[in-house]
Amino acid sequence: MSYKKTEFGKVRGGADTYLYTFENENGMQMAVTDYGAGLVSVIVKDRDGGRRDMVLGYDSAAGYEGDNGLFLGAVVGRNANRIGGASLKINGREYPLAKNNNNNNLHSGPDYYMKRIWRVDKIEENAIKLSLFSPHMDQGYPGNVTIFVTYTLTEANEVLIDYEAVSDTDTILNMTNHSYFNMDGHDSGSILEQKVWIDADAYTEADKYSIPTGEIVKVEGTPMDFRTPKKVGQDIESDYQAVRYGLGYDHNYVLNGDGYRKAAEMLSEKSGIKMSVYTDCPGMQFYTANFVNGEIGKGGTVYQKRSAACFESQYFPDAVHHYNFESPIFGVGETYRTRTGYRFEVV
């Protein structure tokens, strides 16, 4: 294992940012920046020994600073996904939030964690631990919280992401990583021919603004069913309400099982690369880049609609308003801790 630190450019105000690149004995690389604690690249070998970058992104911090709501590679918090009506109640007190997605709150914005410089607390040959202090009422949420995110590259060709946080006030803690994956490489175009498997018998029904209704719907017999691997494009244009509302797939899946387990796979038969997604979270948002339109990314690549997929581990969206969803509210001194892993192999 080895790592190197390089300059990643200045952001507004003149602050310097850095890129930390790790490489294992198999030649797999993982690159993370202290700007937003974002995942910038994941380079793996294909079946022919060629090297491909699995994640969409930008060449410098300025690109991530200019990211206008796509969240490429972003760490999202305090709360990932949507809160209906941009308001939540904790211990009887109402907390209004920014309305940055119709009348709702999306990814805690617009003062995103991905637009802040994180502190590098610890760095090893194969891992980096970053932290961010989020003060009381930051983004509208109560509680002083110090958040830790650790990225680890293993010799088993895994990228592990560990989150940890403790608040001095009851608050919501629900973080995710918003990386966009393409098993043929970030610059290869559409993923519609790639296959996805998701270990979920149900998904959370949502309205046309992607706010859950509270109903949990079985995937069986619907275009939402990925329990048998199928091409992303097979049903993505189907006349099914959930798919029409999402303009493709943009839905929270109710993952089977408990604890840290395999939740999903993505495979390209062209490159031979397969990614397995592991998490200990109850849900996962599967999103097929439906709103990407002409974004200029790494190496001048123009990213388009459905050029990647996100696998965002999480508590269910809008869980604070649905008693039947597992709660993302953590009490004073209670540790929020979760792990998500992405493992790559050639098949």
Describe the structure.
The protein is 3% helix and 43% strand. It is mainly beta. It has one domain (2-190, 287-346): Beta-galactosidase, Chain A, domain 5 (Distorted Sandwich), CATH 2.70.98.10. It has a nine-stranded antiparallel beta sheet, with no helix packed on it. Strand 22 (261-267) and strand 23 form a beta hairpin. The chain starts with a strand and ends with a strand.
Please work out how many helical segments DSSP would assign. 2
First-residue to last-residue Cα separation: 24 Å
Mean pLDDT over the full residue set: 98
How big a fraction of the residues is strand?
Answer: 35-45%
Q: Looking at the structure, what is the overall shape?
A: globular
Q: Give me the count of strands.
A: 29
CATH class: Mainly Beta
In CATH, the topology is named: Beta-galactosidase, Chain A, domain 5
Order of strands across the widest beta sheet?
Answer: 11-12-13-14-29-23-22-17-20
Structural class: mainly beta
